[in-house]
Amino acid sequence: QVQLVESGGGLVQPGGSLRLSCAASGSIFNIYVMGWYRQAPGKQRELVARITSGGSTNYADSVKGRFTISRDNAKNTVYLQMNSLKPEDTAVYYCNVEFPPISRVNWGQGTLVTVSS
């Protein structure tokens, strides 16, 4: 089973940038489809971006063109580069396994991103 630790959140001004990291343990990390999720206060958790083992990516319409998901399999790490941040991006951000479902882990604490002036 994969184990994941998110980091990199914080307070940022509108229009600013932030880079989130998700460090994974597990010998088969390189085959997992990984995803970044977020949950805003009072709202459901939503998928923000995903990346396959081959590097193919998908994004939610709300972040397309502003966020970039990437991975470094040698470091067992997936990243989320967030640019042109908006107040509506404020949320707790989580990473997890998209596929295979059997390799998903329990949702952890995530990392809080607050976009405010």
Describe the model.
This protein is an all-beta fold. It contains no helices and 10 strands. It has strands at residues 3-7, 10-12, 18-25, 33-39, 46-51, 57-59, 67-72, 77-82, 91-99, 111-115. A 6-stranded mixed beta sheet has the order 2-10-9-4-5-6, with no helix packed on it. A 4-stranded antiparallel beta sheet has the order 1-3-8-7, with no helix packed on it. It starts with a strand and ends with a strand. 30% of the residues are buried. The mean pLDDT is 94.
What is the H/E order? EEEEEEEEEE
Strand content: over 45%
Helix count, DSSP H or I runs of 4 or more residues: 0
Please give the largest β-sheet.
6 strands, mixed
Form type: globular
Distance between the termini: 40 Å
Q: Tally the beta strands.
A: 10
Which class do the helix and strand fractions yield? mainly beta
Whole-number radius of gyration?
13 Å
Low-confidence stretches: none
Could you report the average pLDDT, rounded to the nearest whole number?
Answer: 94
Q: Can you give the helix content as a percent range?
A: under 10%
| Strand arrangement in the largest pleated sheet | 2-10-9-4-5-6
